[in-house]
Amino acid sequence: MVGMRVSVWGVVGLVCALMSACSSTSLSRAPVEDRQQQSSASPASADARAQAVKSPPGFDNAGKPGYYTVKPGDTMIRIGLESGQSPKDIASWSGVENPNKIEIGQVLRVAPPAKAETASVKPVTSSSSTTTALPPASPAAAQSKAAPAPAAAAATSAVGDEAVAWMWPSNGSVLAGFDESKNNKGLDIGGNAGDAVLAAAEGKVVYAGSGLRGYGNLVILKHNNTYLTAYAHNQTLLVKEDQTVKRGQKIAEMGSSDADRVKLHFEVRKQGKPVDPSKYLPVR
């Protein structure tokens, strides 16, 4: 009997010891909440730092009027043509040191700053809404077989206080008309290699080169704050950027660069949007 009592009291003591151990373990649990708060704060800080590093130049201006976000395949030349601005001006307004190095997502200013708007691009034609006397074309243009007298007739278009006196850039026949549904953003005018390509109106050369895919040797003229004209597929370019040209001046020679045949592709851009040149040029 004595042995049985000792065994019973031993069992009771063991149970009490186990209960004490369980209670002690429960009271001494480590706080989990603090660790979760610390771990959740760290990724947020890392994301903020990563976002600051990855944001492209000008990111804060994305979506604002007068700004453009660079897309895949864009070049400064194409952005200038599509916005109706000089590529050099866009680079200057946007603080871009090398216009050949722009990145996807970068935001560029494509409208002049308010204070510089009137000074940066001045109209090169009369402010009158009627056709006025124009200076004679250059001797080279006057003697060109591609610019007989009928091509020198002018038609005038006006937007606000800006007027442009237009003439045909070549006397060749029209091979294809303006048709945006077929991605023809201008007129295709036929001719022979070496035929004169004439400035359709007074303006400033904002681009002369072959850096825009699909256009070959290209000249872009800015006529005022509203209108640009583009002359593509030339054989030879006869003008340089920043040069001022007169209406009827020979600016290039017709060719087939980046084209399937000899032709002049001629575009009129109104605030960067392609419009039908036949609605601006004089009736032949």
Write the layout of secondary structure elements.
Layout: H1 2-27, H2 33-54, E1 67-69, H3 76-83, H4 87-94, E2 107-109, H5 117-120, H6 139-143, E3 155-159, E4 162-166, E5 174-176, E6 187-190, E7 196-198, E8 203-209, E9 217-222, E10 227-237, E11 244-245, E12 250-254, E13 263-270, E14 273-275
Antiparallel strand pairs: 1-2, 3-4, 5-6, 6-13, 7-12, 8-9, 8-11, 9-10, 10-12, 10-13, 13-14
Helix pairs in contact: 3-4
Q: What does the overall shape look like?
A: globular
Q: Unreliable segments (pLDDT under 50, ≥5 consecutive)?
A: 21-41, 116-151
Instruction: Report helical residue fraction.
Output: 25-40%
Overall radius of gyration: 36 Å
CATH topology of the largest domain, anyone? Glucose Permease (Domain IIA)
What characterizes the major β-sheet? 10 strands, antiparallel
Overview of this protein structure:
By secondary structure, this protein is α+β, with helices and mostly antiparallel strands. It has 2 domains: 59-120, Roll (Membrane-bound Lytic Murein Transglycosylase D, Chain A), CATH 3.10.350; 139-279, Glucose Permease (Domain IIA) (Distorted Sandwich), CATH 2.70.70. It is built from 6 helices and 14 strands. It has helices at residues 2-27, 33-54, 76-83, 87-94, 117-120, 139-143; strands at 67-69, 107-109, 155-159, 162-166, 174-176, 187-190, 196-198, 203-209, 217-222, 227-237, 244-245, 250-254, 263-270, 273-275. Strands 5, 6, 7, 8, 9, 10, 11, 12, 13 and 14 form a 10-stranded antiparallel beta sheet that branches. Strands 1-2 form a two-stranded antiparallel ribbon. Strand 13 (263-270) and strand 14 form a beta hairpin. Helix 3 (76-83) packs across helix 4 (87-94). The longest helix has 26 residues, at 2-27. It is globular, with a radius of gyration of 36 Å. The chain starts with a helix and ends in a 9-residue tail after the last strand. Residues 21-41 and 116-151 have low confidence and may be disordered.
